[in-house]
Specification:
By secondary structure, this protein is mainly α. The protein contains eight helices and no strands. The protein has one domain: Ribonucleotide Reductase, subunit A (Orthogonal Bundle). The longest helix is centred in the middle third of the chain and has 31 residues.
Length: about 220
């Protein structure tokens, strides 16, 4: 099972604690490549249920990055990521309320869309990023984020549990057969993710170090 990394590379690459040792051109190339790929590739995701998950994930990841930056003495980076985290929190609040209303109006279709999204797995837009060399850049970036505690499988499960509780998915009644199956799938998913969490953390710890062009191939 894949877990998305909800962190914008430019958030810390452009204001890195090792600013004098970073390759300014490489992250810009990665960002431009991601934008081009996103425009050219049709990524099918149910928009509304996906957005609250994405916004809460980016709130968590930028908050954790702010904390790590502060611990390592880069107060400017901590401030930047803290501002982004606050902004993402406002987005999360708004979109969560929108989906909450959708559950009130059309619980059957909404829970089916939610389950469909989780079955397909959430792919953040950055999964298309490319630096001109590493075809698995996002995967390698994800491993580093998991290892550092920026965004982890635990966060992924926590977000799902939060949304299931907030939207009272387990209490939905009067659904179609497909709606009932979708509700049960969603309610049982977070515990499954938690069982896989330890393995994901172990893989991240054992993963070989990879050079990143963003910081002149430092590992």
């Amino acid at each position: 099972m894949a877990y998305p990394v909800a962190l914008r590379p430019e958030s810390f690459l452009c204001f890195s604690p090792v600013r004098s040792k970073r390759n300014a051109r490489s992250p810009r190339f990665s960002m431009a490549s991601t934008i081009r790929s996103s425009s050219a590739t049709k990524v099918e995701t149910p928009k509304k249920p996906f957005t609250p998950h994405e916004e809460r994930a980016t709130f968590i990841s930028h908050g954790n990055t702010a904390r790590l930056a502060k611990e390592h003495g880069d107060l400017k980076l901590a401030q930047i990521c803290g501002i982004i985290a606050s902004d993402e929190k406002r987005h999360e609040t708004a979109y969560t309320k929108i989906v909450e209303k959708l559950f009130e109006i059309d619980p059957d279709d909404t829970v089916i869309a939610f389950a469909d999204m989780m079955k397909k797995k959430i792919s953040m837009p950055a999964h298309l990023m490319y630096d001109g060399r590493d075809d698995n850049l996002f995967e390698h970036f994800s491993v580093v984020a998991q290892r550092l505690g920026v965004y982890t499988a635990k966060d992924y499960a926590d977000i799902l549990e939060f949304l299931v509780t907030r939207w009272k998915v387990g209490d939905l009644a009067g659904l179609s057969e497909k709606g009932n199956k979708s509700r049960d799938f969603i309610c049982n998913l977070a515990p499954r993710i938690r069982r896989l969490e330890e393995r994901a953390h172990g893989r991240a710890k054992k993963a070989p170090t990879i050079p990143f062009s963003w910081i002149f191939d430092r590992e």
